[in-house]
Amino acid sequence: MGELFDLAVAGAGASGLMAAITAAQAGARALVLEAGEKPCRKLLATGNGRCNLTNENISPAHYHGDRGELAGFLADWPGSRVRSLFDSLGLLTRADPEGRVYPYSLQAAAVAGVLRSACAQAGVTIRCGFPVAGAAKSGGVFRLSGPGGQARARACVLACGGAASPQLSGGSGYDLARQLGHRVTPLAPALVGLRAPAKLTRPLKGMRCKARASLFAGERPLYTENGEVIFGDGSVSGICVMNASARLTGPGPFRLTLDLAPDLPTSRLKEHLKAQRRLYPQAPAGELFAGALNLRVGQELAKSLGLTKARTLGSLAPRELDRAAEAVKAFPLPVSGPLGWEHAQCTAGGVPLCQVDGGTMESRKVPGLYITGELLNVHGDCGGYNLHLAWSTGAAAGTSAAKSLGKR
Question: Model pTM greater than 0.70?
Answer without folding.
Answer: yes
